[in-house]
């Protein structure tokens, strides 16, 4: 009996315990659910006018009620579903009152309404000026499409850059589309702003008196100095930061003491432009010349933009930056400081001087074949195939290659070694008196001459702990000289320029068989064809007497390869006909008073080497073609980019009593010699 009672007690205890255990988890879940915190999906949002954003209440308890309100309905309104709409730009607070089982809590979200708009409703720009329109309140992933109401007045680029073409007014429209998100609606806007283009106040001067008068006038946007006379002009001290200066003075010497918005040198004498001012930007768009930076001068930047230009820079003061934007040959004599050199196109730079400060040089990816020669220490960072020639005085030079697919060739005639850093961290040392070509991985790929064992790569090439070096002198065979732009001496029958006034270049550029270049100083020019100030119409050749280049590399010049420049004298002509073809061949034809074509003046405005074929036709009074004459025999050989040539007519046909037309075909060849394209100019007579 006692055992049965004990069993019943135990059974009852177990049963109660089981009931309790099965009921506990349910009680815990219900308690957690009842205490979950209600929140908003966003506590801060930014929308534009007309856009809608759902604030999304999270963890809403069963039976709970909500009530939405806005503290500033003029800025943002809210529906009872929690959708906020932008009304006008500004800020507001959205409140959500949640009531659960008699208890309430208030949730808030801050709303900022900002709508895309132009920074200005009207822009005033000068003709020829470029500005970028400012759009305020931009959104991520939004698109912006610009259009101009009058492209003859203003053009606009895809990024909002405006170019003022001519005087007038245009409306710029920008369509902005802000995309949809999972909780926000999309919206588009059409923005408008007015651009008013005013004409430039310009003046052209050619004397000191006229220049002084122009500078005293505060409203000139552009002053152009233009004269063919051999004179000296002085620009006095002054701040003309709103005025651009353009210089076309092939024979004048100019001393500048003033600060301008910009200075563009289109033509200057071989000697010289002297820059005494501080903070100027010099844009060199001339084929040749000599710029002097005196000791007290401090130049912000010298930009060399003319293709195939040949310049000498004497830096006695400070130049913050020299940038070479087009293929050029530049000699830099430095006794002052050059803070940086940036090379964007294939360039031959010779640096000579006594400066002790290392010159940082950056060679861009589009400057393959650049050659640097220096007796001053250089810190070179290059992304192109680059040749570096260092001589005594350039100790401490450093080279870093940033492109694994490019090589650096260093000839080291300094007293120390030169280390080349490569993109993968490998290093290569070029010891004193040695030459090596190092690829982007740090391996020596070539030595110009043998090292006594067949000319192979030295031991240690490519090692990250220093690498080896190669031996031997570096020799280049100059196969031709870059073409020089012909110089006009004047018109026959008039007083021609003297030899001193011609402005013959101070240096020439030789090109080796492998494409490398070297700048040779010209000691003098030999008057090969006997040009005088009374010469007749035609071409006159001058041959350069070359000096020794500032290079540690040996050069030999192939037999019969001379550096020459042609000086031409225009024939007397009553008429001059010209077709302006800015991207092709500029052509002029000159005739004598009896109507006979005497010669052509042709300029290659392309970037390619071309060959020409000329012919001309003449027609009767009714416009019928009477005959065609081929004059191609007068033009032969390669025609270099930027080169101007004078060609005598071989037929000497008189067109005096007929309507006539000269047609110029320019054939552009690629390296295989195949015709790549053709441009045609018609010179109507």
TrEMBL record:
<feature type="compositionally biased region" description="Gly residues">
    <location>
        <begin position="451"/>
        <end position="470"/>
    </location>
</feature>
<feature type="region of interest" description="Disordered">
    <location>
        <begin position="394"/>
        <end position="471"/>
    </location>
</feature>
<feature type="compositionally biased region" description="Low complexity">
    <location>
        <begin position="440"/>
        <end position="450"/>
    </location>
</feature>
<feature type="signal peptide">
    <location>
        <begin position="1"/>
        <end position="33"/>
    </location>
</feature>
<dbReference type="InterPro" id="IPR003343">
    <property type="entry name" value="Big_2"/>
</dbReference>
<feature type="domain" description="BIG2">
    <location>
        <begin position="36"/>
        <end position="107"/>
    </location>
</feature>
<feature type="compositionally biased region" description="Polar residues">
    <location>
        <begin position="409"/>
        <end position="435"/>
    </location>
</feature>
<feature type="domain" description="BIG2">
    <location>
        <begin position="112"/>
        <end position="186"/>
    </location>
</feature>
<keyword id="KW-0732">Signal</keyword>
<dbReference type="InterPro" id="IPR008964">
    <property type="entry name" value="Invasin/intimin_cell_adhesion"/>
</dbReference>
<dbReference type="Pfam" id="PF02368">
    <property type="entry name" value="Big_2"/>
</dbReference>
<protein>
    <submittedName>
        <fullName>Ig-like domain (Group 2)</fullName>
    </submittedName>
</protein>
